[in-house]
Write a structure and sequence with these properties.
This protein is mainly β and about 210 residues long. It has no helices and 15 strands. The protein is elongated and about 65 Å long.
Length: about 210
């Protein structure tokens, strides 16, 4: 059995539902960093989370420009090996000399455990061109292990080292901390139901 509870009698204090990674995941993370919540002034406590780190391609260098490439337009590169996947980019061929003059990164990929081999495509019939990839560790996810409770404002998230520039933004859910009883004793639990996008609060009677 349940009956409606006045929203004015419900003291909402949520938990941390998720943490969004910002700062493009940062750079230079060689181990899993700590994740800390500053609960000052939020009314809540108990939130905890752990980060995950992956290696991506963050630099591409023309080690050997090669010779005889006939396509003066922009070619492309992909990776093979290195334990990861997904890194791609472009290469530019000099229109007169037929050598590789530059390379850029389009996608950094993920999951690399060592520098991959770069494979060229769309650059014509030349030979000898070599590109070298460099890796860096980034924070690619923050997983909430304990939501905590009582949060009426979002706590500040701090990501430790080794590494830098990764940021996190906490997202609160719609939990209820307690119900204020007016002229009676509250029994049971508060139930939250979302119907057609609207939140309804119910007090379960025991």
């Amino acid at each position: 059995m349940a009956y409606n509870v006045l929203k004015s009698d419900i003291l909402v204090g949520g938990g941390v539902e998720s943490v969004t990674v910002g700062g493009s995941g940062g750079t230079g993370y060689t181990a899993t960093p700590t994740v800390q919540f500053d609960n000052t002034g939020t009314g809540g406590s108990g939130a905890a989370a752990v980060a995950t780190v992956t290696n991506v391609v963050n630099a591409i260098t023309v080690t050997t420009p090669g010779t005889g490439y006939t396509n003066s337009a922009v070619g492309s590169w992909t990776t093979t090996g290195g334990g990861g996947s997904g890194a791609t980019g472009t290469v530019t061929i000099h229109a007169t000399t037929g050598v590789i003059v530059s390379a850029t990164i389009t996608s950094a990929g993920s999951g690399y455990t060592s520098a991959p081999t770069i494979v060229l495509a769309g650059v014509g019939a030349g030979t000898g061109g070599v590109l070298t990839a460099a890796l860096t560790g980034i924070v690619n996810a923050i997983n909430v292990t304990a939501q905590g409770s009582g949060y009426t404002s979002v706590p500040t998230v701090t990501i430790g080292g080794p590494g830098s520039s990764a940021t996190g933004t906490a997202v609160l859910n719609d939990l209820v901390s307690k119900v204020r009883a007016s002229g009676g004793t509250v029994q049971g639990e508060v139930v939250i139901a979302k119907v057609n996008g609207r939140t309804s609060y119910f007090q379960t009677v025991v």
